[in-house]
TrEMBL record:
3-phosphoshikimate binds at K39, S40, R44, S186, Q188, D336, K363. SUPFAM superfamilies: EPT/RTPC-like (SSF55205). Keywords: Amino-acid biosynthesis, Aromatic amino acid biosynthesis, Cytoplasm, Transferase. Monomer. It is an enzyme of class 2 (transferase). Pathway: Metabolic intermediate biosynthesis; chorismate biosynthesis; chorismate from D-erythrose 4-phosphate and phosphoenolpyruvate: step 6/7. This is 3-phosphoshikimate 1-carboxyvinyltransferase. Gene3D superfamilies: Enolpyruvate transferase domain.
Length: 449
């Protein structure tokens, strides 16, 4: 078997086309892969390091565009953050409540986690004024989900469309604690309110309808915050006037990035891949459960705990997948993996149903519409549902011109689909991968045999 021909072509407008030409004889994927650091944990390590007292050391930070946006914002707020690299990043914290008033707008780029978590911290800094914005995508994403609860805490925030869209202006206040019952299972909402509660007198509680990722809770505890968790009701309470102390953080590999290889290894016949050092926090492993339901051949090896987060090497061998239904409480535990699960379902026998995932419509792009449109261009059979998709598998895909819509996870999912499509696929605006996975194309070339 010969390898796929993979080329990256930079266009006149600086955007990149990723061209994937599958050899007529097919291909197989082989090798051991290391993946970039977890995006959610990388953001939190930089942020908590910045508001802690003393120095925080971060190993394995994701060098994607999103954590760069976080570092940029928190430097403007007064934290000293060394040059970003994967070996060791040092953050000299300024202590809780000590942000300086930045001389310019804080730009969160493409990153929902940066803007929403940061808003909780900014709103609880009395006497200081901040402005925040982001790129085209972020400026169209809903901010009311954090603005409303912060306003209930007496925050003063203004923005377009009734204070629901960035750019936003924040006049920091002494906030009052609340018990917030979030209508959505969102770690960004939960974390925003908990971070606001840190510098607020009294106890602030967030209850969510289903458990979302718990990296904030784990890391806040490790940094010395007083936190109580009620797993029965999915509630977390933080005690205000907290003091955080700098820590050593080791960032595991991002299971959301591993997901591309787990699906690729499953659907490309004759493949065997080992993805090393994958974070397998149970609030993130919905993808492993979904692929198991689909009959994937996936094993966890060398399971261990690194700096408070469970980690494993994950082996995948190709297998014939079958359809399944993905809905309910599992959705928040695999929300970012639904684009690549749609690719898996396209190659599965039968019709896969994904429901309760309306949140996908307000991610970096409308991931329901975009994924359905783009995979259908390649011969997929995806019908949009208001809160998910119906995917009929088993139709051979044919290479086509497709577009990431500047959404990193869409671009990478389409690249994996292209490995199993006949002929040539061109993915427009493929540079979006750099948001969470700057080395994606190199690894793609490495594993194609
Ligand atoms: C994230 C939470 C999720 C996820 C996003 C990262 C986080 O968003 O989709 O990529 O780091 O807290 P929601 O909290 O909006 O579901």
């Amino acid at each position: 078997m010969s390898a796929a021909i993979i080329t990256l072509k930079t266009q006149e407008n600086a955007s990149q086309n990723l061209i994937i030409q599958r050899p007529p004889s097919g291909l197989s994927l082989q090798g051991r892969i290391s993946i970039p650091g977890d995006k959610s944990i990388s953001h939190r390590a930089l942020m908590l390091g910045a508001i802690a007292e003393g120095e925080t050391e971060i190993q394995g930070l994701l060098l994607g565009e999103d954590p760069r946006s976080t570092a940029h914002c928190f430097r403007a707020l007064g934290a000293e953050i060394s040059e970003l690299n994967t070996e060791l990043v040092r953050v000299k914290g300024i202590g809780l409540g000590n942000f300086q008033e930045p001389v310019d707008v804080l730009n969160a780029g493409n990153s929902g986690t940066t803007i929403r978590l940061m808003l909780g911290l900014l709103a609880s800094h009395p006497g200081r004024f901040f402005t925040v914005t982001g790129d085209d995508s972020l400026r169209s994403r809903p901010m009311s989900r954090v603005v409303k609860p912060l306003q209930q805490m007496a925050a003063e925030i203004w923005g377009r469309k009734g204070n629901t869209l960035a750019p936003l202006a924040v006049q920091g206040q002494a906030l009052k604690p609340i018990h917030y019952h979030s209508p959505i299972a969102s770690a960004q909402v939960k974390s925003c309110i908990l971070l606001a509660g840190l510098n607020t007198e009294g106890k602030t509680t967030v209850t969510e309808p289903a458990l979302s990722r718990d990296h904030s809770e784990r890391m806040l505890k490790a940094f010395g915050a007083e936190l109580s968790i009620d797993p029965e009701t999915n509630s977390v309470t933080v005690t205000g006037n907290a003091k955080l102390y700098g820590q050593k953080v080791v960032v595991p590999g991002d299971i959301s990035s591993a997901a591309f290889w787990l699906v690729a290894g499953s659907i490309v016949p004759g493949s065997e891949l080992v993805v090393e050092n994958v974070g397998v926090n149970p609030t993130r492993t919905g993808i492993l459960e979904a692929l198991a339901m689909m009959g994937a051949d996936i094993q966890l090896e060398n399971q261990r705990e690194v700096a408070g987060e469970p980690v494993a090497d994950v082996r995948v061998r190709s297998s014939q997948l079958k359809s399944c239904t993905i809905a309910g409480d599992i959705i928040p535990r695999l929300i970012d993996e639904i684009p690549i699960l749609a690719v898996a379902a396209t190659f599965a026998e039968g019709t896969t149903i994904i429901r309760d995932a309306a949140e996908l419509r307000v991610k970096e792009s409308d991931r329901i519409t975009v994924m359905a449109q783009q995979l259908n261009k390649m011969g997929g059979k995806i019908t949009e549902l208001p809160d998910g998709m119906e995917i009929t598998g088993g139709n051979a895909l044919v290479g086509a011109e497709v577009d990431s819509h500047t959404d990193h996870r869409i671009g990478m999912s389409l690249a994996i689909a292209a490995l199993n499509a006949s002929g040539t696929t061109t993915i427009h605006r493929a540079e979006a991968a750099a948001i969470s996975y700057p080395n994606f194309t190199n690894t793609l070339v490495e594993v194609c045999r």
